[in-house]
């Protein structure tokens, strides 16, 4: 190669490098369910951390200030996007069934599910994964030591935090359960009842647990004094955890579900989440239709019919990929979607009873999500949970943390609905060390012009909320629009459209019911969506936090 040619090639390479270096947001955006968590994430970024370090800070603070929704007694999923090479992965820190768990552990002498054992107290808890997930992210993707990213949470646990109206509302659903367990009642209640607005809760035992993790990493949680307190507390109260269960827990990396929709790549959660598969299936079904342009009643009808079919497949096929072979390629293929689409009539609802796999069923919210993008373009979509508000309500003495009730996300009995009304079959039956199926759907939308992070809590309704947010993104709207949209939902069974009170007009409800749909309007809203977006054409970085709760905060800086 001549000197001139080498010079030209070098100049082109330098120019490409300069362009790549400039192709970054330049600002960081964090949106989460609590202002203290969002501020903690920015605090860690200011100390030289990246989005992955910030995710640890945000998640650990949420574990302190929102025991309603998440905590070190629970688990979840982190979707990661590394800007420097475009690498994407999901860190699976979903809870696992204890080693002594078995298929029929919640059935009484009549073969019926004992809902109290499945939802309340230590018998409802899977082996927690959140600490292992944070350790994995810090070691493999972060820039700062885990101990640094945990400092805001340690400080807040010791100094305390004022409770807000959301905390009080959700506690109202679970206060009787919390009263059953002395450690939980002492830590969270005031004179045995819901604390007043603004009451400051201090959690010194949880601060001690965090300090053990900061000093020893995940081993400080899964072995030693913390593990001993966890197991002793659970077993003395009737649970089945062992020290071996904790010592053997590991976070797992999973290849995301990827699907294209209208020129954007969606990177979303794979099993043991059902979210990515269901989203891909729904979007593939509706892709030929101009879904954002048709009449609102027809739009709702078509979306509901796609939801119905995706949730049917969720119930039948999906489970823990380490235990179950699933036809993922088929479920996420456009050919399969075309067949499902052909069964949808544009003028008449399809009764769920007419879809294969239905059973006679009876009808039966909480998790957290945060979205992060740093100035370099690294992205995190994290959905973390203890399942229902305050998890199982059980707190092992001396730990300051609530045990999850994720065992209820298994199918305790074939065709029997769980706390969220979701059904399951053999693919999601209880087995030792298995991870229960989830609806959590942390998602990236990646296109040439825009990149975005989205997700929400909300139990079985997570998937449909994220779907509506994705469609709003596709319509060109900003995060503040996605998170505020009125919501509606269908999950195959019970066979009804659930809607927030402002989702439809009376005329639209009448038209939907004339097509054969049953519409149930709920007074209470649901979800707590948070999103961030980088417009690569304008350079603008924006974020939105769900206005349904005043505690959330989205900050760009």
Plain-language structure description:
With 557 residues, this protein is of the alpha+beta class. The protein has a domain at 255-364 and 440-550: Serum Albumin, Chain A, Domain 1 (Orthogonal Bundle), CATH 1.10.246.130. Helices cover 37% and strands 15% of the residues. It has 20 helices and 18 strands. The strands form four sheets. It has a seven-stranded antiparallel sheet with strand order 6-3-2-10-9-1-18, covered by helices on one side. Strands 7-8-11-12-16-17 form a six-stranded antiparallel sheet. Strand 11 and strand 12 form a beta hairpin. It starts with a helix and ends with a strand. Residues 1-21, 358-364 and 418-424 have low confidence and may be disordered.
Summarize the topology.
Blueprint: H1 3-22, E1 29-32, H2 35-46, H3 51-65, E2 75-82, E3 87-93, H4 115-119, H5 130-140, H6 146-149, H7 151-159, E4 161-162, H8 165-179, H9 182-188, E5 200-201, H10 204-216, H11 219-222, H12 224-236, H13 243-247, E6 252-254, E7 257-261, E8 264-268, H14 275-286, H15 296-317, H16 328-331, H17 334-342, E9 367-373, E10 379-385, E11 443-446, E12 450-455, H18 462-474, H19 479-484, E13 488-489, E14 497-500, H20 506-514, E15 519-522, E16 530-535, E17 541-545, E18 553-556
Parallel strand pairs: 14-15
Antiparallel strand pairs: 1-9, 1-18, 2-3, 2-10, 3-6, 4-5, 7-8, 8-11, 9-10, 11-12, 12-16, 13-14, 16-17
């Amino acid at each position: 190669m001549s000197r001139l040619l080498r010079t030209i090639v070098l100049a082109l390479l330098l120019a490409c490098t300069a362009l790549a270096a400039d192709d970054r947001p330049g600002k960081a955006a964090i949106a989460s369910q609590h202002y203290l968590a969002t501020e903690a994430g920015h605090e860690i970024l200011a100390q030289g951390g990246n989005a992955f370090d910030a995710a640890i800070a945000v998640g650990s603070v949420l574990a302190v200030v929102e025991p309603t929704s998440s905590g070190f007694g629970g688990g979840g999923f982190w979707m990661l996007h590394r800007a420097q090479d475009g690498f994407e992965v999901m860190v699976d820190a979903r809870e696992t069934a204890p080693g002594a768990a078995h298929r029929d552990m919640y059935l009484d002498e009549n073969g019926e599910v004992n809902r109290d054992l499945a939802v309340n107290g230590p018998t409802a808890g899977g082996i927690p994964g959140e600490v292992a997930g944070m350790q994995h992210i810090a070691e493999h993707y972060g820039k700062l030591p885990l101990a640094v990213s945990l400092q805001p949470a340690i400080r807040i646990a010791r100094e305390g935090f004022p409770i807000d109206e959301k905390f009080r509302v959700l506690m109202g659903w679970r206060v009787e359960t919390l009263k059953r367990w002395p450690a939980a009642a002492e830590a969270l209640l005031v004179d045995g009842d819901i604390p007043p607005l603004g009451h400051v809760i201090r959690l010194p035992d949880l601060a001690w647990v965090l300090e053990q993790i900061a000093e020893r990493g995940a081993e400080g949680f899964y072995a030693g004094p913390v593990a001993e307190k966890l197991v002793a507390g659970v077993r003395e109260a009737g649970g089945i955890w062992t020290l071996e269960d904790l010592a053997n827990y590991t976070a797992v990396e999973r290849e995301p579900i990827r699907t294209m929709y209208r020129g954007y790549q969606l990177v979303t959660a794979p099993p043991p989440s059902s979210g990515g598969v269901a989203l891909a299936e729904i979007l593939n079904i509706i892709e030929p239709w101009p879904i954002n342009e048709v009449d609102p009643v027809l739009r709702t009808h078509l979306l509901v019919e796609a939801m119905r079919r995706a949730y049917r497949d969720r119930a039948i096929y999906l489970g823990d990929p380490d235990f179950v072979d699933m036809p993922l390629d088929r479920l996420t293929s456009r050919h399969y979607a075309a067949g499902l689409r052909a069964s949808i009539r544009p003028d008449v609802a399809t009764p769920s009873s007419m879809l294969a796999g239905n059973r006679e069923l009876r009808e039966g919210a909480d998790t957290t999500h945060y979205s992060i993008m740093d100035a370099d373009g690294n992205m995190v979509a994290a959905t973390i949970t203890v399942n229902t508000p305050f998890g199982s309500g059980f707190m092992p003495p001396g730990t300051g943390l609530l045990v999850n009730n994720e065992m209820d996300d298994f199918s305790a009995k074939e065709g029997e609905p769980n706390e969220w009304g979701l059904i399951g079959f053999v693919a999601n039956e209880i087995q030792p060390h298995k991870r229960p199926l989830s609806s959590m759907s942390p998602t990236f939308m990646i296109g040439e012009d825009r990149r975005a992070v989205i997700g929400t809590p909300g139990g079985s309704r997570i998937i449909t909320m994220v779907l509506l947010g994705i469609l709003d993104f596709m319509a060109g709207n900003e995060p503040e629009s996605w998170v505020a949209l009125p919501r509606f939902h269908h999950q195959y069974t019970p066979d009804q459209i659930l809607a927030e009170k402002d989702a439809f007009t009376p005329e639209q409800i009448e038209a939907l019911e004339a097509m054969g749909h049953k519409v149930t309007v709920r007074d209470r809203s649901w979800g707590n969506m948070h999103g961030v977006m980088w417009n690569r054409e304008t350079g603008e970085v924006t974020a939105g936090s769900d206005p349904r709760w005043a505690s959330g905060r989205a900050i760009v800086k």
